[in-house]
Amino acid sequence: MSSARYLFTSESVSMGHPDKVADQISDAVLDFCLTHDPMSRVACETLVTTDHCTVAGEITTKAPLTRVAVDKIVRDAIREIGYTDPRIGFAADTCQVNCLLHAQSPDISVGVDTGGAGDQGMMFGFACDETRTLMPLPIYLAHRLVENHAAMRRDGRLKWLRPDAKSQVTVEYLGDGTPDRITTVVLSTQHDETVCETVGGKNVFSEAARREVIEKLVLPTLKAERPDLIKGDIEYHVNPTGIFLEGGPHGDCGLTGRKIIVDTYGGRGRHGGGAFSGKDPTKVDRSAAYMARYIAKNIVAAKLAKRCEVQLSYAIGHPDPLSIWVGTEGTTAPGVTEDKLVELIRAHFKLTPKGIIETLDLRRPVYRESARHGHFGRELPEFTWEKTDKAETLRKAAGV
């Protein structure tokens, strides 16, 4: 165990970030399909840019997924996110919607219909005891900042906010991995013209608005979550470029699946590389990552380890995982080993795609909400992978 302190940083992005807009549209299509046909096979990708949205991919479903229906799904999602003003280059009622969806390859269904995985790959899940939801602290705080940003924008507490935003939080840790203090917060937010001022002949984000972001958004969020870690001066970078008028899909093209680290653990745990949004639960990229989080969270909740990372790997068309790996960074409880944890996982969790889907009840339209503010760390009733209902069983089985 090192005695040296260290810093760790994670970022999040708002529901109005271009890539997150794309993720939410893809998952809105998925939810529509699952609402009408729980057995839908969906692989939906979205691109958004200035006044344009393209939805493409492979879908096999009994849902009435006509071009008219896709157009409505897209516009409703964009409107709900908050892009309603055509003057900023992207709006629900005026953007062009292009639909390029077609049926899924029968070569894939050959293996999936018999219960096999919908793709190959490795998926990771992570949990630690740094927060009440057993998420790493930096990504948890970064998510709460953009979540509260959206809430304040939508209810009018900060009327000049626009949907696009990014957050970043740096935490200083003790050598044993315990969070000690929050050192730095970055918050970049799109805004309207009312909070601009002229300084040195340049149009910039006003100092008054900067203070308002810190006093009304950042500090209340940190105090609500971890007031014990606000020690001394925190370094704030609010709109550090000086201005953020042009943003959203007009300012930067957005694509499904480009925020996979934001979606998971902020870099704290490993990532297998597969994105989540737009994929139905036969795709183990998504469902096995949810199961790995469920397993890791229950192990930490059972106090069998303070930190737990789980890897599952699969081959397309093959139902059982090829491998199960557990890493705890030397934090297992007395008498518990990582090999023992693998044995417990095999005994108490169903790890075939069919078993994962049944355990977590994944054929429901719950995915659009997961596509913003993080797939993990929010204990919503529909996020079954966040439950800790196996913790007591695991603790007893381990003899702890």
What oligomerization state is this entry in?
single chain
User: Strand arrangement, largest sheet?
Assistant: 1-6-7-10
Shape call: flat
Helix amount, in percent?
25-40%
Q: How many strands, what sense, and barrel or not for the largest sheet?
A: 4 strands, mixed
| Termini gap | 24 Å
> How would you classify the helix and strand content by structural class?
alpha+beta
**Number of helical segments?**
12
Q: What value does the Rg take, in angstroms?
A: 22 Å
Q: Could you report the average pLDDT, rounded to the nearest whole number?
A: 95
Order of helices and strands: EHEEHEHEHEEEEHEHEHHEEHHHH
**Which stretches of 5+ consecutive residues score pLDDT under 50?**
none
- Please report which band the strand proportion falls in: under 5%, 5-15%, 15-25%, 25-35%, 35-45% or over 45%: 15-25%
E-strand count: 13
Which descriptors apply to this entry?
400 residues; 12 helices; 34% helix; 24% strand; 4-stranded mixed sheet; alpha+beta
What does this protein look like?
There is one protein chain. The protein has 400 residues and is of the alpha+beta class. It has 12 helices and 13 strands. The strands form 4 sheets. It has a 4-stranded mixed beta sheet, covered by helices on one side. It has a 4-stranded mixed beta sheet with strand order 4-3-2-11. A 3-stranded antiparallel beta sheet has the order 5-12-13. A hairpin with a 5-residue loop joins β6 (161-173) and β7. α8 crosses α10 and α9 packs across α12. The relative contact order is 0.18. The model has no long low-confidence stretch (mean pLDDT 95).
